[in-house]
Write a structure and sequence with these properties.
Layout lengths: L5 H10 L6 E3 L5 E4 L4 H6 L12 E4 L14 H17 L4 E4 L2 H13 L7 E4 H11 L9 E6 L12 H9 L2 E2 L15 H7 L1 H17 L4 E4 L2 H13 L3 E4 H8 L9
Helix pairs in contact: 5-6, 7-8
Length: 262
């Protein structure tokens, strides 16, 4: 199987090893899962998340191990996922709001594929986000902008959730102009490709993707996955696009956050 070099694969296994260093907030019936990505904690704040922001959980002990699918190490997932599920169960939660596609996809797709029972209800953050924005509709001031959406590869686990993006963006006045690399024809952010296939292919994929965004007339590049955002933010900024996470875009629409500048 064509995958990343062994040193890179082992690096990811070691970086995500559970070390009994985690953070748990004021968790009751609900938990806000920030996986092992610090940026998700900052996103899960403000008016939109006011009822669940204090219930955050973070750390390798609560991290979905789906990242290892990129390196064809399903054995790591089979070893670690039962532990992650058990750690959430020990918190006594009934619902886990997943701030990362891979977390929700892990609990709803990968777990069932391996016959693992999930004793709580996983909630996709975009479902939560859409409902909250409907509740806050009176505060929304349409942004009236054009944007390109960077669909993450982790969304492959939950393709039925893709329509939520357009519903959220329509609600806040964001238009998605038609372009070549979108929806089922989307391109990867390129960084996993860089690990597996090297710089030449990764740079080519990223250039084609950004060229397509600009040719479609987009002003903003909207992200879902923090890894995609980290990989492409600087590159899209240099080309004149404004990088922003979809949650921050919603915060902009209700006046909680200033408009992003390139």
């Amino acid at each position: 199987m064509f995958t990343a070099p062994r040193p890179i694969t082992n690096q990811w296994i070691n970086m995500t090893q559970m070390q009994d260093k985690y953070m748990v907030g004021e968790v009751k019936d609900k938990a806000l899962s920030c996986c092992y990505i610090p940026a998700l904690g900052a996103l899960g704040t403000g008016e939109i998340f006011k009822d669940v922001a204090s219930a955050g959980v973070f750390g390798a002990e609560f991290m979905c191990p789906a990242v290892h699918t990129h390196f064809a190490r399903m054995s790591v997932i089979k070893d670690r996922l039962p532990v992650v599920i058990e750690n959430f169960q020990r918190l006594g939660v009934k619902e886990v709001i997943c701030m990362h596609d891979e977390c929700y996809g892990t609990f709803t797709s990968i777990a069932s594929a391996y016959g693992m029972e999930v004793p709580f209800k996983p909630v996709y953050y975009m479902d939560f986000l859409l409902e909250r924005m409907k509740e806050l509709k009176g505060k929304i001031k349409p942004l009236n902008i054009k944007a390109a959406y960077q669909r993450p590869c982790s969304n492959r686990l939950i393709p039925d959730k893709l329509p939520l993006v357009k519903k959220i963006l329509n609600l806040i006045g964001v238009k998605l102009p038609k372009r070549v690399y979108q929806d089922e024809n989307c391109l990867c952010c390129g960084e996993i490709i860089r690990s597996v296939s090297g710089y030449k292919l990764a740079d080519d994929v990223q250039k084609r993707n950004i060229d397509d965004m600009l040719e479609a007339g987009a002003e903003y590049c909207v992200f879902n996955c923090p890894a995609c955002q980290s990989s492409l933010s600087e590159k899209v900024s240099k080309r004149g696009l404004k990088p922003v996470h979809i949650i921050d875009l919603c915060k902009m629409a209700i006046g909680e956050k200033e408009r992003e500048v390139a």
